[in-house]
Amino acid sequence: MIINKDNLVFRRATLEDIPELVKFKLLLLDELNEDDDKSNLEKLKLELKKFFTEYIGSNDFVSWLVEYEGEIVATSGLILWRVPPRYDCLHGKYGYISNMYTVPKARRNGISTELIKKLIEEAKILGIDILNLHATKDGINTYRKFGFTDPIDPEIELNLDNY
Questions:
Q1: Domain total in the chain
Q2: Which is it for the CA torsion 146, 59, 101, 35, positive or negative?
Q3: Which of 23, 24, 52, 126 has a 20 to 30 A CA-CA distance from 101?
Q4: What's the pTM value of the predicted model, to 2 decimals?
């Protein structure tokens, strides 16, 4: 799809956008994890709605959307959290970029690049020291162009549902 970039509208998400934010998060999850067990789909939808309802409009979560010809074609998110300060993170403010998703027909038009710029601007305004994210193979080079690097120490996780 050829997009006239002059017709792209970048804006912050509002409470009215929650159904679209839920839809786009599910599109992202389904694309990344097509083999996941979807037996909890309805509960996931409810939890996503609760999350967005609680955090949209707070300084703990910021979401930017992109509209093209009246249709949302991309979403993004920035989650803020605090840790005890350290030498390279003097304020203890981290930002986690999430929910980066562009519908397939609108990809390769620089939309994600512009969304990353918006999120970096937001992070600076919020006084965030460090941004991180989990990148897909398709998106990792875009993030590296902005200066994202591989972490020194690998991140590991424990799913407490299985513990």
A1: 1
A2: positive
A3: 126
A4: 0.90
